[in-house]
From TrEMBL:
Cross-referenced SUPFAM superfamilies: eIF1-like (SSF55159), PUA domain-like (SSF88697), SWIB/MDM2 domain (SSF47592)
Keyword Lipoprotein: no
Organism listed in the record: Merluccius polli (Benguela hake)
GO BP terms: formation of translation preinitiation complex
Pfam families given in the database record: Pre-PUA (PF17832), PUA_elF2D (PF26292), SUI1 (PF01253), SWIB_eIF2D (PF26291), WHD_eIF2D (PF25304)
A GO molecular-function annotation: translation initiation factor activity
Region span, Disordered: 187-231
Acidic residues composition bias: residue spans: 200-217
Domain DM2: 390-474
Encoding gene per record: EIF2D
Name the record gives this protein: Eukaryotic translation initiation factor 2D
Similarity annotation: Belongs to the eIF2D family.
GO cellular component, one term: cytoplasm
This protein's UniProt keywords: Cytoplasm, Initiation factor, Protein biosynthesis
């Protein structure tokens, strides 16, 4: 399941009630855990995160992360442990042993086949089909994979140890393991399995000819005698596997050592210089000079900041933009800066032939807002706003008017269909006024369905438009939402609008809150990242109180104008479905 990269939907801190529920669910799923162990896994005062992800096949999975390591994952309302949790509590689930070469196949996404299972002298563990179980390597008690039993223990024996044994969901070295601190298991000798027999037969059908080679290799593995040399050799195999798999990461870490040695201030200085040169080379035109320094920073340098990073001059060694520009002028002679008034500077000249500027190569990293192109390259569909249609449901009050058209209570109709049915009803009952065809006679049925009690003895005629509007007002309003490539979704009442508001935090700080993005198929994480890149301000996600799956985006400052531009111009959400745009700060009068 996690052999390929997954996509994170949200990452929030668990609430108190959910923490207690999780603890109870773990106790039910893993009864061998003591109360002390449960308290270690779900501590009361330490931060525990709930991370919702989508696997590469589209499965929705919930991760529970403690100390940056995922301990459990929930799939189809069932809890499974990760290898990080199992390395601390290796005996909470029944286990199947196999050899190191087989583990390499499992790490690549294959299931554990019965010909590769090492049967201990005490026999196979007692499991039923679908039970959660783990896979270990001979000679090491640390579990290396988690999955479900493909058949019961009795069925495995009766099948002659052929076929699929364990359907693997997660294993050491997969992307779920890589989401944690990427630590490796300790080599703890397994005293329960000192030897075993391997029943050779069919290997994994998915591996084809390679699996036949593995079956031949497995047939040469030690069996039955359980001598110490065999166990030691198995341990060596595990160590070699671990070292081989970790070697690439160690090389990456060594390559990153130079970057890690840089202080955050040095990194910000380098980012500031990169954005400065990038802006001059690709953004600023000669016709724009002279250019205010503040405008140069806001309109040219900020958009050149790579995605995932935030340009903050206060965190650099320069502290102020003016000091940085003076350095670029005096040391590198890239620009010439002129002070217009105290605290106001302008770029009046750029040396386009400067060797520093000419040798600079702008990074090819795409902008965050070019996500649709990236998604098409990755095989994902770009975002398209949903088509929203107002419909009407037949209520009990007006049902008699629709019986002749075989429309019962609860039937959802479009306004044009309602108009047609009411017109046919009026004509069928000869209710059109002969003297003035713009009026309709009110019969007892129309009286009961459309008129108020005070109008019973006063209203005898209605105009056509009044008749239609009264009928629609007595019906239940519904909203039909259609996303591209999906079936229509019908919701009662008006569709929730995207709500943009400004709230105060602290003494004089303001934040912008955005709600109901999920109603329109927008991922709050994507919107948050795009806004963060646009305005260069921090953004966080918070669960909406009183809801289960909704998340609001909070970003520093009054950013209503930028949020509106993003939703209207980039995501093409119609303005009528956004409320709060009128609260945007108005420009100062010149």
């Amino acid at each position: 399941m996690f052999a390929k990269a997954f996509r994170v939907k949200s990452n929030t801190v668990i609430k108190g009630s959910d923490r207690r529920k999780l603890k109870a669910d773990i106790a039910t799923a893993f009864p061998l855990l003591s109360q002390e162990e449960l308290s270690e896994l779900v501590p009361n005062k330490e931060e525990l995160n709930v991370v919702k992800v989508y696997a590469h096949k589209g499965d929705a999975v919930t991760l529970y992360v403690l100390h940056k390591n995922p301990l459990f994952f929930e799939l189809d309302k069932r809890l499974y442990p990760t290898v990080y949790m199992l390395w601390s509590y290796p005996n909470v689930l029944p286990s199947f042993a196999t050899w190191a070469p087989v583990l390499q196949k499992i790490a690549g996404g294959a299931d554990l086949m019965l010909p590769g299972v090492v049967v201990p002298s005490c026999g196979l563990p007692e499991v039923r089909q679908g039970d959660c179980c783990v896979v270990k390597v001979v000679g090491n008690s640390a579990p290396m994979a988690v999955g479900t039993a493909a058949m019961s223990s009795a069925e495995m024996c009766s099948a002659g140890m052929k076929g699929r044994g364990v359907s693997v969901l997660h294993s050491f070295m997969d992307n779920l393991w890589a989401y944690g601190d990427k630590s490796c298991p300790a080599s703890n000798p397994d005293t329960e399995i000192t030897g075993g027999e391997v029943v050779n037969g069919e290997e994994n059908d998915e591996e084809g000819e390679e699996q036949e080679t593995d079956a031949a290799e497995l047939s040469e593995c030690p069996s039955g005698q359980g001598n110490h040399q065999d166990t030691e050799q198995a341990c060596i195999d595990v160590e070699e596997l671990r070292l081989t798999e970790c070697e690439g990461e160690k090389e990456e870490e060594e390559g990153m050592n130079l970057d890690e040695q840089k202080s955050p201030q040095d990194e910000m200085d380098a980012l500031l210089l990169q954005c400065f040169l990038h802006a001059l080379k690709s953004k600023v035109k000669k016709s724009e000079l002279p250019l205010l320094a503040s405008s140069f920073l806001r309109n040219h340098m900020f958009p050149c900041c790579p995605s995932g990073k935030q340009l903050d001059i206060k965190k650099s060694s320069y502290k102020k933009l003016s000091k940085f520009l003076q350095t670029m002028q005096q040391q590198h002679r890239v620009v010439r800066v002129k002070e217009l008034s105290k605290g106001v500077e302008s770029l009046v000249e750029v040396d386009w032939k400067n060797p520093v500027l000419r040798s600079f190569r702008a990074p090819e990293e795409p902008n965050v807002e070019e996500a649709p192109a990236q998604m098409r390259e990755a095989g994902e569909k770009p975002y398209r706003p949903p088509e929203i249609t107002m419909l009407y449901s037949v209520s009990a009050r007006v049902e008699p008017l629709f019986l002749e058209a075989n429309k019962r209570k609860g039937t959802v109709l479009q306004p044009g269909e309602v108009r047609t049915i009411i017109t046919e009803y009026v004509k069928a009952n000869q209710l059109v006024d002969e003297n003035n065809k713009n009026y309709v006679h009110i019969n007892p049925t129309l009286c009961d369905c459309l008129l108020e009690k005070s109008e019973y003895h006063e209203v005898c005629f209605l105009k056509w438009d009044d008749l239609f509007s009264r009928t629609l007002n007595k019906m239940q309003e519904c909203s039909q939402v259609v996303f591209a490539g999906q079936l229509p979704i019908i919701k009662k009442g008006h569709i929730e609008l995207i709500d943009i508001s400004v709230a105060s935090r602290g003494s004089n700080k303001k934040v912008t809150l955005i709600k109901n993005l999920e109603v329109y198929g927008l991922e709050p994480t994507d919107v948050s990242a795009a806004l963060q890149h646009r305005v260069q301000a921090s953004a966080v996600l918070h669960p909406v109180p009183g809801t289960k799956d909704k998340v609001l985006v909070q970003i520093q400052g009054n950013q209503i104008q930028q949020v509106g531009n993003l939703l209207l111009d980039h995501y093409h959400i119609p303005r009528k479905y956004i409320q709060g745009l009128e609260k945007a700060p108005k420009g100062k009068k010149k």
